[in-house]
Design brief:
single chain, mainly beta, seven-stranded mixed sheet, 44% strand
Length: 165
Amino acid sequence: MTKKRFEICPTHELTPGERRIETLDGFSIGIFNVDGEYYAMKNDCPHQRAPLCEGKLTGTNTSDTPGEYNWERDGQIVTCPWHGWEFDVTSGESVFNPHRVKAKTFEATVESPASSDGGNASTDNLDVAPDGGSCGGCSHQLEGDEPPVETYDVEVENGVVVVYV
């Protein structure tokens, strides 16, 4: 399958910590700048199809010891605006259970147009539990075998952010 190329904007229009939501080839896609690296994911939460990329962009707390917390991955976590499910925009993995709800990921690189490989990037396969997982608060089951959170190839070509769908 041939990927389509979409020029999004010059890099100076999408500064670190910002995002854009665009309709590309009929899909709503969020494009994020995380510390100068660009990532794109489908604007569709696997829980109940909320506009995932419109959610708050934040980080997450981790803890190795009871009562001690570490703030990590600042600006990498998008929180679903409907029910609070969290996903890492750099990998597509869910924060709450990355082993059961994990989206397909793509390598994003910055290249000059002369060395571009046409958007063909390595991928990791999608992994989901056989039962699809559920939200403990509402008992809603994920639809199908694969959650629809997808990430897409993003490159910078001559100072322009480009997404391949």
